[in-house]
Structure formats: C-alpha cells, structure tokens
Amino acid sequence: MKLSKLSAPTLLLLPAFIVLAVFIVLPLMFSLYSSFTPFRLTKPDTLWVFIGFRNYVNVLTNAEFWVAFGRTVLLLTIALNAEMLLGLGLALLVNKATRGQRILRTAMMFPMMFSPVLVGFQFKFLFNDNIGFVNNALQSLGLTDRAIPWLIDGNLALFSIIVAEVWSSTAVFAILILAGLLAMPKDPVEAAHVDGCTPWQTFRYVTWPYLMPFAFIAMTIRSLDVARAYDIVKIMTDGGPAKRTELLWTLVGRTAYGDARMGLANAMAYVAILLSIVFTVYFFRKLAAARQQIGAEW
Amino acid sequence: MDTNASHRLRRRLLKAAHFVGLFLAMAVICLPGLWIVLSSLRPTVEIMAKPPVWIPETLSLDAYRAMFSGAGQGGVPVWDYFRNSLIVSVTSTVIALAIGLSGGYAFARYRFKAKSAIFLGFMLTRAVPGIALSLPLFMLYARTGIIDTHFSLILTYVALNVPFTIWLIDGFFRQVPKDLAEAAQIDGCTPWQAFWQVEFPLAGPGIASAGIFAFLTSWNEYALASQITRSVNSKTLPVGLLDYTAEFTIDWRGMCALAVVMIVPALTLTFIIQKHLVSGLTFGAVKG
C-alpha cells in the first residue's frame, strides 16, 4: 500500500539504489570510519580506537605518498593525452580507408577485449630483458648489442607501463571518435572546401568541434576506470624496481595487505577516491557542455 | 601538364603514406596478441633460446593439454578457475541486467527531480578504484564469513556493473520512440504489456550487448577478486593467471596458454556486440 504511493521512477530506481548503497556506499562509510582508527588486521581491537586525523596527517606528510601521487598524475596525464591523439589519428586513418573498413574496425577493438591483467602480462612478456620480443627484435636487427633492462630500470619501467596502458585504451578513443566521424554530416566539410579552407582549417574548425562530444564520452568512460592501471602495474613491476613505479593504488594495496595497516591504507584510499571523483565530475561537465555546443538532441 | 603530373605524384604519395600508416598501426595493435598465441604453441626451449628463434620449428598443443589435464601438471587447477569465473560472471550479469533494465528505463522515459545529479551519482560509484573498495569489502566479508565464496564475489560484481549497465540501457531505450508504447497503450495494452511486447523487443539487441559488456567486466576483473578470493573455492581466471608466477621462475608458455583461454570467450562476445556497444555509449547519436 505504501509502495504504490511511490512514483514510477522512484520504484524503478530503487533496486539500483539499494545495491549501490549496500555494496559501495556502506563499505565506503565503513572505510571512512576506519581511516580514523589505527586499525591493523593483526590487532582487531584497534578498530575501536579513535585517533582523529592522525592517519591523514601521516599520509599527507609522507614523502613516499606524494611521490606516488605525483607519479600517478604524471602517468595519467601522459597516457590520456597520448591515447587521445593516437585514437584520433587511428580513427582518421581508418575513416579514410576505402576498402576493408569493417575488418579494420574490428581489429581496432582488439585491445579492448584484453583484461588489464592480460595486458600487463603480455607486456611483461614482450618487455622481458632476456627473452622478450622487443629486445630480441632490437638485437636481431642489430640496433643494440646489449639487453635493454625495460622493466628493471626505473624510468624505462614507467615508460613500459605507459606503453601498455596506451596500447590497451587507445581503442576506446579510436572507436568513439570513429563513430563521430561516421555520424557526421558531409555538407559542412564540403562547404568549407568550397569556401577555400585548407585541410587543417577544415579539421580544426569544422570536424573537430563536431567530434568533441565523442571525445568527451571516451574521456568519461576512461575516467570511470583509470584505476585499471593498478592491474597492469601490479603484474608488470608490482611497484618496483625500488618503488620507482609505485602508483597511488599499488601503494594502497601494499600498505593494506602487505603491512596490514588498514587504517592508514584507508586514509590513502580516500585520497585516491577523491582523485577519481574529481576526474569523473570534470569530464562529465565537459561532456554536458560539448553536447549543448553542437545542439544535438540527446 | 607539369602541375598535373606533380599533383598526381603527390596524391599517390599521400595514398602510400596512408597505407603504410594504417599498416603500422594495425601491426602494433595485433602483434602482441599474436605473439602470445604463437608462444603458447612453442616449446619452452624455443621461447628461452638465445639468440632468439624467430621461425618456430615445432608447434604443439602440449601447454593446453598440460593445463586441462587436472591439477597434476604445473599444479594450476584451471578447470576450477574457469568454472568459478563462469558462475560468477553469468550470475552477476543476469542480476545486474535486471536492475539495470529498470533503472535505465526510468532514466530514459521519466522526468524527475535531480535526474542528472542521480545519474552522475551512480557513475561516481563506478569511479571508486577497485583496490580502494577492496579494503572495506575485505574487512566486511571477513567479518561476516562470506569471504572466498561465489556469493560475495557475485554481489560485488553486481554493484560494480549496475552503473554502466544503466548508462547503456538508458541509451538504448532513448532510441526507441516514445510514441510506440503510447500507441500500444491506446490500443488497449497495459503499461506492463506495452513494455514487454513493444519496447523491450526493440531495445533487445542493445540490452543483450549491455549484458555482454557486464559479463566481460566481471570476467576480466582483477583488483577486487585478488583480495576477496583466497582459494580454489572462488578464485577466478585473472587471479589464477598469477599462479604461474608464484614460483621463483615464470612458466611463460603456461601463462600464454591460459591467456589464450581467457581471451577467446571475450573475443567472441565482443565481436557480437561491437556495433550496439558504440551506439549505446553515444546515446543513439550514431547509426552504426
């Protein structure tokens, strides 16, 4: 009787609300609470000791944390920009192809089907300094006579991880931008041509504004699970060598399960969550603005 | 005449450059996967050989035979992991789809207060990094004693999949004109009948691809599974992949073979849905 008083959309959204509240929001509240305690897995009693903001102070004054934070932001910036540019390039290339478009489009989706764990494993194999494809190829071609320590040198390891990340996610951008190209009306481009625009001008002022919403959809989807990079890093280097590839997420994992310091790890996790949320909200708003700009009916 | 010739040359060069660029891009995309497949078929000696052996001399299915011959060879119970993955993925997909169906329909068909805020809120729950979410879930599941069971994993994946399922299904229902259901109701259908007999079949292929997408997310998930699964009872394939590195040395061939086993279902399913997936994500702005 009371149920029927609720409006239809409320009723329809109720299951989703309940599931998300119970399995995402509630656990997060719990972890918020435990981030104010010195909780250690090995000492259950510590869950009931309240220590205020001490964990957060610890985290925010910890140099190791800030290094990992900076590295995460750096990695995301480089990776997302590279994915965007490469995805755009790939979409334009495929769109220009006159034959075999269907096959090309299917092949383009290939990396998307790989789970991050597989991507990590695959690149760990390819970049192995001893038996990896990359070193073997370089040595066989005579480009280098010694083995390049891709995953053993700190900077090269970060580079290798970025390569893996870009390989796996460029497809998201390429596919959605290609969808935009296919849906685009041909007249404005032709009009620009007639009016004497150079190819670059046509692209910059006619094609690109039209593609923007699609690029932002891709960005939004990517921002929803940027933390997938955890899987890749975990497999490829596990934060090593000597913590030179430690990201926010691997640091959280190590503090929680390696050192069993759950309270501290939860405080770190909250910083990671905030980072993700800021990211997602930013792109959602961009997405909404871009949609209004082209005035399409959504 | 001269300008004509140079123009033609330029066009031909551009065409060649386009072809080379496309070829290189496709090579970079496809080669790593093919290399894994090839490595799974080669004897370990050849993988480890120095200087490298480029043309394989012998190909065999030994790695696959060893993997599926039970826990004896190599000690990795692939069958159990495969069964766990399948049970968890299928069950969580079905539940997530049911919930996503009702939620997505609400977003596509009704106007209500704070609609976009609620939508954004749903998406934000998806943005929580898996490893960050795994901490409280690990503690809660350990307390309630449902850690290392299919049950806990299924519930987690349902929550993980609901936001994105809603996004996709919302997009698919928007492509179905509102008038159709109204016309059906004027013709005497109840709203319930109108939904199941008119709107649902029209959005059907899209909903199926939302389901496949949810399935793949569960099938591939690692960050959460690696913490809430502990043993053969509930370990899934992505977690099982690490069994090969647990020892001091890595069994590259075995890992490659397991990787192929993991990727084949994903590959097949993605081919089926690729068209619908794109149109769902772009809210029907595209006719693919």
Q: Helix and strand layout, with pairings?
A:
The complex is a heterodimer of chains A (298) and B (288).
Chain A: H1 8-34, H2 54-60, H3 63-96, H4 101-109, H5 116-126, H6 133-140, H7 154-183, H8 187-194, H9 199-224, H10 229-236, H11 248-258, H12 262-294
Chain B: H1 2-41, H2 44-48, H3 62-68, H4 78-109, H5 115-127, H6 130-144, H7 150-175, H8 178-186, H9 191-220, H10 225-228, H11 237-240, H12 252-281
Helix pairs in contact in B: 1-12, 3-12, 4-7, 4-9, 5-7, 7-9, 7-12, 8-9, 9-12
Folded structure, characterized:
Chain A: It comes from Sinorhizobium medicae. Chain A: Belongs to the binding-protein-dependent transport system permease family. Chain A: Its main location: membrane. The complex is a heterodimer of chains A (298) and B (288). With 298 residues, chain A is mainly alpha-helical. Chain A has one domain: MetI-like (MetI-like fold, Orthogonal Bundle). Chain A is built from twelve helices and no strands. The longest helix of chain A has 34 residues, at 63-96. By secondary structure, chain B is mainly alpha-helical. At the A-B interface, helix 1, helix 3, helix 4, helix 5 and helix 6 of A face helix 1, helix 4, helix 5, helix 6 and helix 7 of B.
